[in-house]
Amino acid sequence: MRALATVPAMTYLVVLMVIPLGLVIAYAFLTAGRFGGVQGPVTLDNVTRMLEPLYREVLASSVFNAGAATLIAFAIGFPAALAITRLPSHWQTAALIAVVLPFWTNFLIRTYAWIILLNREGLLNDGLALAGLGPIDFLYTRQAVILGLTYAYIPLMVLPIYASLQRLDPQLLEAAQNLGAGAWRRFRTILLPLTLPGIITGCLFVFIPSLGNFVIPELLGGGNSQMIGNLIRDQFLKSRDWPFGSALSLMVLALLIIIVMFQASAARRTRRWGA
Amino acid sequence: MGDSAVLLRISDVSKSFGEVVALDDVSLDIRENEFFALLGPSGCGKTTLLRVLAGFEQPDAGTVTLDGSDLLSVPPEKRAVNLMFQSYALFPHMTVAKNVAYGLVCEGLPRAEITARVDEVLDTVGLSDKKAALPKTLSGGQRQRVALARAIVKRPRLLLLDEPLSALDRKIRGEMQMELKRLQHEVGITFVVVTHDQDEAMSLADRVAVMDAGVVRQLDAPLDLYRRPRSVFVADFIGSSTILRGSYLDGHWETPGLPPLSVPAECSGARAIALRPEAISLLSVDDSRCRLRGTVSEVYFQGDHALAQVDVDGTTFLAAVRDDVLPERGARVGITWQESAIIPLVAD
Ligand SMILES: Nc1ncnc2c1ncn2[C@@H]1O[C@H](COP(=O)(O)OP(=O)(O)OP(=O)(O)O)[C@@H](O)[C@H]1O
Ligand SMILES: [Mg+2]
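Above: the input entities. Below: the structure tokens describing the complete assembly.
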């Protein structure tokens, strides 16, 4: 009876996790077929090829872009979340809706909007022209990619941090202040450590989809800001090199697993403190 | 009253939250090394007053001086005033030792001095063996002592305690009350304790301010509060008593439903008169000394004595009786009192 009850969950896992993952792992050690697909023999070529400078550079640049987006999202998201918790409660709901509102509109449309803002004849350059400056090439730069990633995922930073801040007893901050702690010390010794679970979650929520994103680098970065997501997509859709694409996917996956394990250990530590 | 040095002077402080007047023109002097209690029913503004002193609320009007210099313009983190929160507000991610050291670290003291002072204060509150423990592993009484240690280690001029004992059960509470009192003598810091428990205020404090709806109704030593309440509110709030509203006429007190009662002249102009239970004695009905006669309607046991409720034509009198001469419920009895025990209450 017990065993029977786990069938739906097991089916779900096998169909959506085990089989696709198994395929990716298997493909990574096979040779590319001429028109896509895979064929023998079994090889380590795909793995060694990933270590070539060209691909290492793309990976490093992707980690840099995703990391920068994560940092900026934190630098903006944390104060934003803090400001929201200080609002009267009905305004808090309104502010949170405003934060997630962009999520309900089409992702592509939002990204195109940035093109309109940033391009040489765009609104930003119009503004600069009024001030007698510019034009500046904002679009098709690494900065534009980082901006796009930050913009796309910042709600995922704000929400978990907001949840953490909500759970924080405001009296702890007053107690710290009463004991002589100035604003910076209160932030560093009370606010930051006690909202760390939310901060780490928010950072993962921004970093993970940023790392694998290929739409934003393409639209805002043009051809010259390839990220690992573009590379993987190209292997499947353009070069028809499924095994190499699989190997790259596995590498990204491994990277993310390491990060998530780090997050789990940090979360365990904060749970010890109790409520 | 003979004044020892005034440490804290609160003058005409008012504070409203929208429509709610939390503090209404409060003036108090708190003396050096005094154990001062703020007593009053829930919502009367006790916490608000402490928060004004700690700097977390700015009053709408009034001034506060500490040691003669203005306190209100000093930011909260710079005030020589420490607050022990009702919920203790211990930092959950820090050990007991780190919690206690926090205020000293903020002062930037050398590490050796911090360690020494933390050890010393933890010794004082009897928690030396819990230094490395996290707050959530402590019992309620232990947490309370950590919170206290964290506040006194700073050696503030003034220590504010917001219902420090309300989260504890009755037995530990009694122990902690004695410990608080001992600590206050030992560390020589002025304590202001907020409570809505009259027994706590009466047993701990040198002086008690009784508050009601943002107003200080009376400020006195505990015994004077009990013996000489000046208003119906205070007589009613502190201890139990029989309160007779009415008016003074020619050496008599006229109360609806009762014959005129002979009272001292100082009762002229009073709103009501009060009698403490121990001032009223029970007599047999046919005793000629009886001032009034009635029926015992209820008897409450209070340990070493009991309170008898005597109904006299619809007016209830409370009399303290010894355990060995308990009246029966329903018995007809007579009551009397010393005229000098009558307390005039000049205000509502
Ligand atoms: N931040 C606030 N916003 C609005 N009203 C408040 C605020 N703080 C206190 N009040 C109101 O002010 C009044 C006094 O509150 P206060 O907390 O000082 O009472 P208290 O005497 O400490 O009561 P208790 O014994 O229940 O703790 C109450 O009516 C309360 O509702
Ligand atoms: Mg209170």
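Note for the figure: Residues B 46-47 surround magnesium ion (ligand 2) (CB under 6 Å).
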